[in-house]
Sequence to fold (541 residues):
Amino acid sequence: MSPSVPPPHTADRADPGLAQSAGRAGAATLASRVLGLVREQLLAALFGAGNDMDAFFVAFRIPNLVRDLFAEGAMSAAFVPTFTRQLTVHGKPAAWRLGNNVLNALLVATLALVVAGLVFTRPLVTSFAGDYASVPGKLELTIRLTRVMLPFLATVAVATVAMGMLNSLHYYFVPALSPAMFNVAMIVSSVVLVPVMPSLGLPRIMAIAIAVLLGGLGQILIQWRPLWREGFRYSVVIDPHDRALRQIVMLIGPGTVGVAATQINIFVSTLLATSQGTGAVSWLTYAFRLMYLPIGLFGVSIATAALPAVSRHAAIDDSAGIRKTISRGLAMMLMLNVPATVGLVVLARPIVELLFEHGRFTASDTEATAAALRLYAVGLVGYSAARIISPTFYALRQSGTAVAVSVATVAGNVLLSISLVPLMGFRGLALATSIAALGNGGSLVILLRRRLQGIEGERLVTVLTRVLVAAAMMGVATWALDYAMTELLPGRQILFRAARLSAAIGGGVAVLAAAAKMLNIAGFEDALELLGVHFVRNEGK
Fold:
């Protein structure tokens, strides 16, 4: 069958709308983020910020970095377009064969990495945390935890392939929910396993390392049932001569570079922040964690839904379909993320105060974290635009463009960081990261516009202009409500804090909705659908 003629779609499920698909992914992402917040609060209560947690964070750094790149980066960008092309052009049998081929190849590669890691754990950990040797038992604990958690790499590989196949088949809620299984495992293990570790002769923190492995298995199991229902059966197939597999392998390397700008920039900021005194790394980390919520909900979820659709259009050389999908995705993202930016800037302090100002987290910590959050929020649209646009170049088989922009973004971030730190301290790192993100997203949009000979630019400019007006109105209303509620309920009790913040957010959202309706903003209905209750309709049928 000629690729230029669209065959009947082989999936049994109807292709849902972009907003509905993104809404499913966004709802699951929200659940995962909320559980992640519960997880971190529980770990803080159990272990504080002592030697056990230091050892755990260093031990988990390597598999966690690989997880970030696989789950939200290189593997998705490389695998989903190729698998979707096989599904669209050749049907399910060819797609299942490719899925098994990729799955087994990744298992071989990751298990080899695990074995190498187990052999060289001591020098590997020492290169990251050599100073731990000065604290009795701390380096040894880090090495033990690392060895326990290294097999997590293999579970990430399997879960990511399953996620890609399900996304290509129009399943979005379950794959996006799978990371929540990691948080569930951590929470349950904190309650159930931590108390019994000493009776087994193990440190309490070992329960959390075990939870990492259980969480990885949970991510696989939750996705296996819908895959089985669609007809996927695991088989031991490794064909290194398979053309589609070789395409994916060739894309994974550039893919890692092409979509890793955000992770690399945050890593650079963390390194530079270590020179900015006690607390700087924590303030930046807490701030970015809060800012990553709207990225996940309104950037990653839209990108997750858009990529399979773009890949199907690319498989049949349908440039008009790609333009329409990308334009609609960007309009939806602007409708959600521009107001989110304004909201984070205006309400940074009360948000940080409500969530973190407990125990050892002081009022001065709140002010510092809020300052970083405001500056990180400036780049929110850039982060989300890059998440939507960058994988599109892989679907178009032009990965070099995304790689070049990512490398330039990282270089620009380093230069900006070095320049701004002497002027602004740790705040300069947040601002540099945001400027780099805006440059990254903007460059990718411009280059994709040239490649596709337009992405409905006039429509997007109109949407952006009207959204800016609506967001400004929302910002003024939010600030006024926050000020009024602070005067009305000046206490520092947690219920008063929650009431003030809820009133400010609720009033701001009401003003935003009214302004969007009045200005007739394109994408507003899509945004409502993404945020509405329709995300679970038909899921799994």
About this structure: The chain is about 80% helix and 0% strand. Confidence is low (pLDDT under 50) at residues 1-15, 533-541. The longest helix spans residues 319-356. Residues 31-232+239-252 form one domain.
